[in-house]
Amino acid sequence: MEKYLDAFINAFEGTLNWTWKSILFEVPWYTNYFWGLVAISLFVWLLEIAFPWRKNQSIFRRDFWLDAFYMFFNFFIFAIVISGVYEVLGLLFAEFNITAKSFALIDMSNWSSGLQLFVFFIILDFVQWFTHVLLHRYKFLWNFHKVHHSVKEMGFAAHLRYHWMENVLYKPLKVFGVMILGGFEPEQAYIVHFAAIAIGHLNHANIKITWGPLKYIFNNPVMHLYHHAYHLPEGKHGVNYGISLSLWDYIFKTNYVPEDSGTIEIGFKGDDKFPQDFIGQNTYGFGKGKG
């Protein structure tokens, strides 16, 4: 038991120290996700201000500061808190000889760096797309995902407005994706992580971008706005589940973009009764009788 407690404490302290060092610019720039998030957020926000899609939407839109808090909570505070739990789980799996290479289907270690990065990006994006579908398909998961869909005015910070339970759901599946790759994460994986932040911010931003013919490959704000639409096609649990890539939606016929005015109502049925504060939103999914 002592080794598990030590592992928990060491992981917690290690993540806390790394985050603090990031704030103080004492880590390599390509692993400094704190200031990377700040820089990308400011850049996309300036684009929103300069080229607003919905002209009548305020610069400090509804729930702007709540969403800003969610960004740092989900990206850093929760990561610090949960890091010890993941370390303990790693030790428990090791007791049964389950390692990062146990389910390896692909060995990328001898591939070129560009090919490693490409395959890493594709597989992780598909795993996230599939997880996103599950969040909409099953009521128990949807009750947590409602936090993200409770946004009533879209802006870049809405990207990271989600229930902390989504971290619990996404992380193991993303780890499984890495395990498929032989437990191997490319040296340049930071490029994928920063690109995912930028694409996610843009997809939620008040900017009209379609990427032209590339819309069939990359997700975009016009497509993602309809993911948040209040009124969905009959019989659909959701549409446009893409994270960074839209191609999964086109392949599996979950794409839906009937027009591009940007004026549609977003949210979900009953969102007028959904909690408006951080605590209420993050305890909601654990209540009884939620629809």
Overview of the molecule:
The protein is mainly alpha-helical and 291 residues long. 55% of the residues lie in helices and 0% in strands. It has ten helices and no strands. It has helices spanning 2-23, 33-50, 64-95, 113-137, 139-149, 164-180, 189-204, 221-227, 247-251, 278-284. α4 (113-137) packs across α5 (139-149).
Spell out the key features of this protein.
291 residues; mainly alpha; 10 helices
In short:
The protein is an all-alpha fold and 291 residues long. It is globular and about 55 Å long. It has 10 helices and no strands.
Mean pLDDT: 89
Number of helices: 10
The low-confidence runs, each spanning 5 or more residues with pLDDT under 50, are none
Largest sheet descriptor: none
End-to-end Cα distance, whole Å, is: 41 Å
User: In total, how many beta strands?
Assistant: 0
Structural class call reads: mainly alpha
- What would you call the shape? globular
DSSP strand (E) fraction?
under 5%
Spell out the helices and strands N to C. HHHHHHHHHH
C-alpha-based Rg, rounded: 19 Å
Binned, the helix content reads 40-55%
Subcellular location: Membrane
Organism: Winogradskyella alexanderae
Protein name: Sterol desaturase family protein
Keywords: Membrane, Transmembrane, Transmembrane helix
